[in-house]
Amino acid sequence: MLIGFNGSPKPGSNTRKMVELVLEASGHPYKIYDLAKLNIRPCIGCVKCAKDSRCVLPDDMQPLYEEISKADGIVVGATVYFRKANGFTHNFLERLFPLRHVDPQTMGMPAVALAVGGDEAEVVARDVAYHLKSYFNFEIVDQIFYNTMNPPCFICGYGTTCQYGGPARWMSPEEFAQFTEITPEMFKHVEAEAELTARLRTAGQRLGESCRQPA
Length: 215
Prior knowledge:
With 215 residues, the protein is of the alpha/beta class.
């Protein structure tokens, strides 16, 4: 079984679609967790997990430890907020801590790291991959990013008038003065990106081939 973790809180997000594309291409059974629907608190640094490789916090991370430790591989999709993985993704990655003590439970497990953001997704994909490999001994099959250039200013209701948002910062004063409408065509969708979707499917195939156990 492969497990995907989607860090986006938005239904039908590019992040979730990317996670699913990779998993579908693997040829293995899989499930996806939407992290925004789970109650996963930040690590409190007590290190009591060193005793039995399980966290003491009573939240939705508890059942995931057993699932992850028995998984054939994982896919982590991060949504980018302020050049970092958003809070849902960060808390999840942080709370993997119990799996690295004494007898690391994810040693050699294949993983794919994904990140979606406006124009800073590359650094976050790299950070997620580093986190999984350096701290938890995952074998990174691929790290893939998607810069959508879809700022939150496009949905806040003030994108065409706010002098401090992304459009005002990216455009010249003359261009911004002419920017009066946000249309559906401005939003990018992963399914329309042929090169990206091909790479995601290739990553999924490689993930399937790298699984620790047969499907």
